[in-house]
Amino acid sequence: SKARGRGNFTLFVDEMDARYLERQRLKADLRAAVDSHGITVVYQPMFTPDGRKLACCEALARWHHPEKGPIAPNIFIQIAEEMGIVTDITHQVLQKACADCRTWPESIGVSVNLSVQDLRQGDLASTVEKILTNAGLPAARLHLEVTESSLIEELSAARDVLEQLRSLGITISIDDFGTGFSSLSYLDTLPVDVVKIDRSFVRNIGEDARRLKLLRGIVSLTRGLDIGIVVEGVETREQLALIKKHNCADLIQGYVFSTPIATHAVKGLAEEASLH
Ligand code: C2E
Ligand code: CA
Ligand code: CA
Ligand code: CA
C-alpha cells in the first residue's frame, strides 16, 4: 500500500541520515585525533625466507577511537583521503617511523605507506628529506610504498616525485602489486626498487596449482628487471615452503613470521630470529 511505501521510504531516509551523521561524527573525531597526534604506529617485520634475518619493518597506522575502539586503517585512511587530511597522517607516521627506526639495529629499515594524495604534493621529497634530517636517520634505511593503483592514477606526477625521492637514497616499493590490472611493461620505465606482491596471489597456492603458476609467472617477469620481491600475506608453513621451493621471494611479510608489533619489540624479535 501507499502508506507502507511511505513508511519504508521514511525509514530509508532516517537510516541514510543516521549513516551520514555517523560518518560526519567519525570525520570530526578523526580530525581531532590527527590534530592531537593520536594516530599510533605498529610495525610488521619482513624476513628473509629462511626466517633468520629481519630486514625491514612496515609502519602501519592505528587509530584507537575513544568509544568505538580500534578503527581499521583501510577505513580511516579512506576517510582521511575524502577529507583531504591524509598527508597530515603520512607526515606523522613518517616522523614516528623514522624516530623508531633509529632505535633499532642499523641493519633494519622502515617502510612507510604513501597515499595517492601524497604523490600530488610537489614538495614531498623536500618534506621527507627534512623528516629524515630531524630524525637523524640515513635515507638508505627508509623505504616508501606506493600502491600500483595510485601509480596508475598519477603516473606523470609519480614519476617525478619518485625520481626525487630515489635520488635522496630512499628505496621505492610498489605495494599491492598485481592488483592494479596494469601492464607490466611500465615497471621498466619507473624508478622502482621493490615490488610487494599482493596477498591475493598467495592465498590459495597450496590448494590450486594454477594460483601457484600465476605467482611464479609474476615473479619470473619481475626477476628479469632486477627488482626486489617481497611476498605479502604469507600465513601458513605450507605457503612458506612453496614460496621457498620456487624461489618466489627475497623477503616475506606475513603472519607466518609475525603480526604487526610495537617498536620496542623489534630488536628482540630480530635477535631471536638470528639464533634459529
Ligand atoms: P597494506 O599496505 O597492504 O598493509 C598490509 C596489511 O596486511 C596490513 O593490514 C597487515 O596487518 C596485513 N597483513 C599482514 N600480514 C598478513 C597476513 O599474513 N594475512 C593477512 N590476512 N593480512 C596480513 P592493516 O594494518 O589493517 O592495513 C590495511 C591497509 O591500510 C594497508 O594495506 C594500507 O593500504 C593502509 N594503511 C595502513 N597504514 C597506513 C598508513 O600509514 N598510510 C597509508 N596511506 N595507508 C596505510
Ligand atoms: Ca603497504
Ligand atoms: Ca600491500
Ligand atoms: Ca592493501
UniProtKB/TrEMBL annotation:
The EAL domain, residue ranges: 23-274
Protein name from the UniProt record: Diguanylate cyclase (GGDEF)-like protein
Organism: Rhizobium rosettiformans
Lineage: Bacteria, Pseudomonadati, Pseudomonadota, Alphaproteobacteria, Hyphomicrobiales
Region of the whole protein represented: 485 to 760 of 769
